[in-house]
């Protein structure tokens, strides 16, 4: 579904990714781990099309198409969805207004108000969100946990095929994390999709039944494995990779 080959990326004239490779097939859940500032969020933003990040070399192929030739809107229409670590607030634009417009754009026709409202109400119930969130400004005045669940409301309504979760567990209490993970797992059962997860914690990897775990250093993936690799990092930290990364930062930015 997604194939990243020899990707090099820079921002503000600093190279962040250097020969990055990753393959994700349909239905798989992959996790990327690594120290702060290593470039994990960069991958998420580049896949989504953030223009602040300059791709100097490499390719990203999504379902056989060149993703780097698509603008952000086209990528979203193709089914790519990013849940940011800190979802932004958009006052004055309600969830209902944005989602109905986005669905009409995606489907090329106006969506039924009755069906739309019914699905919105059912989804709010799944996420344990008040129905008032339907007409509330996007993430406006919401807590960190409410924002994450509000973004999952968008996920259920837009039905993406490739979901990027950038530290979705950040700022969530135990109950909210369970609701979020239960919803993502339920979504996976009813929709054929793939997931790319960025996290520091093995717990959410277990809850989402991650199949592949990747460790980043040197601007690329340096080790891959299953959940046992995440447990190793949780017990021992990134010390085995930190020295290699310190050397690479000098080499990458020379």
Notes on the structure:
The protein is of the alpha/beta class. It has a single domain (2-252), classed as P-loop containing nucleotide triphosphate hydrolases (Rossmann fold, 3-Layer(aba) Sandwich). It has 9 helices and 12 strands. The chain has helices spanning 40-48, 72-77, 95-107, 113-126, 144-158, 174-190, 202-207, 227-236, 239-252; strands at 2-11, 14-24, 29-33, 54-62, 65-66, 80-83, 90-94, 137-138, 162-166, 194-198, 212-217, 220-225. Strands 6-9-10-3-11-12 form a 6-stranded mixed sheet, with helices on both faces. It has a 4-stranded antiparallel sheet with strand order 2-1-4-5, covered by helices on one side. A two-stranded antiparallel sheet has the order 7-8. Helix 5 packs parallel to helix 6.
Provide key terms for this protein.
254 residues; alpha/beta; Rossmann fold; six-stranded mixed sheet; four-stranded antiparallel sheet; 12 strands; globular; disordered C terminus
CATH class, named Alpha Beta
Low-confidence stretches: 244-254
- What structural class do helix, strand and pairing data support? alpha/beta
Kindly estimate the percentage of residues that lie in beta strands according to DSSP.
Answer: 25-35%
Remind me, CATH topology? Rossmann fold
What is the CATH homology-level superfamily? P-loop containing nucleotide triphosphate hydrolases
Order of helices and strands: EEEHEEHEEHHEHEHEHEEHH
Domains counted in the coordinates: how many? 1
Q: Kindly report the spatial arrangement of strands forming the biggest sheet.
A: 6-9-10-3-11-12
What is the overall pLDDT average? 87
Q: How much helix is in the residues? A: 40-55%
Known CATH architecture = 3-Layer(aba) Sandwich
> Counting H and I runs of at least 4 residues, what is the number of helices?
9
| Major pleated sheet | 6 strands, mixed
Tell me the span between the first and last alpha carbons. Answer: 34 Å
